[in-house]
Amino acid sequence: MDYPKIDTLVCTSCGACREDCVAQAISPDPYTIREDLCIRCGHCYAVCPVSAVSWPVSEINSYQTTENPVGPGEQNPGRDTGVHFGGEPRRDEVPGQAARFLENLVYTRRSTRQYQNRRIAPEVMERLVSLASYAPSGTNARVAGITIIDGTAEVQELTRCCMQFFAGAARIVLNPVTRWVLMLLLGRKTTRQLEGYRRSMDRYFRGGRDILTHHAPALVCIHAPARLPVSRDDCLILGHSMVLHGESLGLGSCYNGFLVRALAIHPGLRRRLQLPRGHRVFSVFTLGYPAVRYRRGVPRSKLVTRIIPGHPETPA
């Protein structure tokens, strides 16, 4: 597997890539990428202001948008294609450039882990929630709900409770006695991953860096009745509809599977959200105005695709 590389002759040591690297895989002096830690997310490639990061040439399914950068905390002019509707939009009246607009949103979206200290206006949040009601729903059940924690301090309080719970669990599970049992049951790699999570939690409490919700001004939880077979898919579709809509309005987001799991096993966290009885959270993401500028899309490997051809039509 190939990994991105940093050209030290071009690199200005600005630190943008290292600050945005979720895997902490970039070492300074000179700036290099540790392949043993890199998860190939592409943030370093997308954020570099001087294009010092190169991507493996083997990634052939690529799309780059250097002319339409995502600016921090502002609606990207490159994304505003002039596609606006008045009144009730009709599908047959959608302009042709709408396809390009949507492609650009998908190609250039990044998981945002650096946010401005800026609250999302109520009218913007209402706009997101209103459009989310149009998301597809299995059997048209439409039972999903949205709970939004609005405000950085409120999000931080939920984060603190979650981290305290898991830090305590980690101390119990990953002690010197049980470590060898875990290695036998889960394997060396999984055990080391768990130890990495524990170190991350230690950094949270000692260094004050929010590695869970990233000081975001809002946290969105999508939930639905736990026993309905359509609930999980409905929540995921509704959540991603909100995420893409938010991108078009200049908002960044980051999905958080850790909190989804935490809310499934921690009754105290569920009580804080005041969820409807019988509901389970299936999707969680942070939301806010980005404090970082992503300058280009990241190439991706071509998906393994199979097309099963149909029978040729018989002439009438």
TrEMBL record:
Pfam assignment, any one: Fer4
Keywords annotated in UniProt: Iron, Iron-sulfur, Metal-binding, Oxidoreductase
Family as reported in the entry's similarity comment: Belongs to the nitroreductase family.
Record bears the keyword Nucleotidyltransferase: no
Region (Disordered): 64-92
Keyword Cytoplasm: no
PANTHER family, alphabetized: NAD(P)H NITROREDUCTASE YDGI-RELATED, NADH DEHYDROGENASE_NAD(P)H NITROREDUCTASE XCC3605-RELATED
Protein name: 4Fe-4S ferredoxin-type domain-containing protein
Originating organism: Spirochaeta lutea
Record domain 4Fe-4S ferredoxin-type: where: 2-28, 29-58
GO molecular function list: iron-sulfur cluster binding; metal ion binding; oxidoreductase activity
Cited InterPro entries: 4Fe4S_Fe-S-bd (IPR017896), 4Fe4S_Fe_S_CS (IPR017900), Nitroreductase (IPR029479), Nitroreductase-like (IPR000415)
